Amino acid sequence: MRLLLVEDDNHVAAALSAVLARHGFEVVHARSGEEALQALVPESEGFGVVLLDLGLPDQDGYEVCGKIRKRTSIPVIMVTARSDVRSRIHGLNLGADDYVVKPYDTGELLARIHAVSRRTAPDDAAVSGETALKLGSVHIELPTRQVSVDGSVVQLTRKEFDLLALLAQRPGVVFRREQIISEVWRTSWEGTGRTLEVHVASLRSKLRMPTLIETVRGVGYRLVAPAS
């Protein structure tokens, strides 16, 4: 995902950009409101999220948020030290999708980025009208939450099914661990990493396909579609 970071402090931006890059984001840094607005023209569709600091040198961050919202529906997360309720309400009324107060936990910020992306992105299966996914001998029925291999039904837990369905909707695409935890467990990465590993191992075992879900070291997992 490409992410527009609007932050006038170069040291803060560099540190945050490094963290985001480690988690698979391509970060574009804008140091002012004007730079941010220019970055959104003409390629606004190339960004998945805007992280907007309110203390900008040329324009008030609220003003920038209003201008962004007039020209695009890209999710905007305000990142600021202003923690009072009135400021948060004002930001949300201007069209911000979320509001994070400094200092913040990096895991929480990542979870919020994934959450706003999930809320604003169209569901692939819903858009295409898909009710089933077929990957070689693996057949996934989305409405009934039933999985079969070579015609034989495999009993999965709720989280195992959610994990498999998430990966199966984009075969070959690497899903970051943080993204999987956010979408399947609806929480942040901290303390849940081992749970994810256990569920991946369980899926490999139950489906009798140890190579179906590939571990991408230091990043996450992807589903390798088996041959038909």
Automatic annotation (TrEMBL):
Record's SMART domains?
Answer: REC, Trans_reg_C
Q: Name one Pfam family in it.
A: Response_reg
Q: Which regions of the protein are recorded as binding DNA?
A: 130-225
Keyword annotations for this protein, in alphabetical order, are:
DNA-binding, Phosphoprotein, Transcription, Transcription regulation, Two-component regulatory system
Boundaries of every OmpR/PhoB-type domain copy: 130-225
Q: Which InterPro entries match?
A: CheY-like_superfamily (IPR011006), OmpR/PhoB-type_DNA-bd (IPR001867), Sig_transdc_resp-reg_receiver (IPR001789), WalR-like (IPR039420), WH-like_DNA-bd_sf (IPR036388)
Q: 4-aspartylphosphate: which positions carry it?
A: D53
Cellular component (GO) terms are: cytosol; protein-DNA complex
| GO MF entries | phosphorelay response regulator activity; transcription cis-regulatory region binding
Coiled-coil annotated spans? none
- Which part of the chain is the Response regulatory domain? 2-117
Q: Which GO terms describe its biological process?
A: regulation of DNA-templated transcription
Q: Known PANTHER family for this protein?
A: REGULATOR OF RPOS, SENSORY TRANSDUCTION PROTEIN REGX3
Please state what the protein is called.
Sensory transduction protein RegX3
Per the UniProt record, the source organism is Streptomyces sporangiiformans
